Amino acid sequence: MGGLLIYCFNRSRHTTQLMQSQISLLESQSLRSQMNPHFIFNVLNGLQSALILKSDREISHYIGQLSGLLRMTLDVSKRESISLTEEIEYLKSYVELQRIRLNDRMDYCFDLSRNIEASKIFIPPLLIQPLVENAILHGITPSKNKGILVISIKHSKLGLTILVEDNGVGIEKSIAIKRWYRNHHKSYGNTILLERIDLLNFNQIEKIKFKIGNLNKKGVSSGTSAELFIPNPIIKKLTPKNGFKSLYHEKN
């Protein structure tokens, strides 16, 4: 009788965990689908200013870039994981679109450590883009100086560290601007990002970590630094077991 009770208890616990995992998966898919209208709203706002300030040729180039990026966004939002190679290409397209919108008032670079095999590392899709979006929209755009955006990616025995740094207005001023901005438009980007991280961390021993702070130089606030850490066990879990066909082609 005791053995039967233990068996029933363990089976019930396993079923409960399985159901919770399925619920987390569905919620994660729902949040990724919410990223699409949020992202599209922001880039269409950029298109509005582009139509006013730019020539027909520049507008045509902007719309072409936008069309490709929207197609990529719809593709990756349907997937549970994406290779780091794809993620970088996606981010480059997004940042280039924002650079055009800002009239080249921003420079950017991607800094990858040499030991990274980007095509073999898989991460959750649309997890880095909100950090880059915040750096550009709330840090660089309000600043009077030319923007500099640096996206650094390092891989160690513990996991993947992504660092997004900008020389924008800093956290305090950005919060004040966001407070005014919220009266005119409610942004869901940060909320969705944090909820997705919580869901991805569900039932995981080693968890995704996120932190943000002021980027200080000589004791003076000179921008914002956002750091995302994805542990190797989660990366391993996201890596496809059976072959994988990339959606993008690496450029020479």
How would you describe this protein?
- By secondary structure, the chain is an alpha+beta fold.
- It has one domain: Histidine kinase-like ATPase, C-terminal domain (Heat Shock Protein 90), CATH 3.30.565.10.
- It contains seven helices and seven strands, in the order H-H-E-H-E-E-H-E-E-H-H-E-E-H.
- A hairpin with a 3-residue loop joins strand 4 and strand 5.
- Helix 1 runs antiparallel to helix 6, helix 2 packs antiparallel against helix 3 and helix 3 packs parallel to helix 4.
- The longest helix has 52 residues.
- It starts with a helix and ends in a 14-residue tail after the last helix.
- 27% of the residues are buried.
Radius of gyration: 20 Å
Number of E-type strands: 7
CATH superfamily: Histidine kinase-like ATPase, C-terminal domain
Most strands sheet: 5 strands, mixed
Mean pLDDT: 76
Q: Based on Cα principal axes, name the global outline.
A: globular
How much strand content do the residues show?
Answer: 15-25%
Quickly count the helices.
7
Strand-and-helix sequence, N→C?
A: HHEHEEHEEHHEEH
CATH topology: Heat Shock Protein 90
CATH hierarchy, class:
Alpha Beta
Counting helices, strands and paired strands, the structural category is alpha+beta
Layout of helices and strands, plus pairs?
Blueprint lengths: L1 H52 L2 H21 L5 E2 H18 L4 E7 L9 E2 L5 H12 L6 E9 L3 E8 L4 H12 L6 H12 L8 E9 L2 E12 H7 L14
Helix pairs in contact: 1-2, 1-3, 1-6, 2-3, 3-4
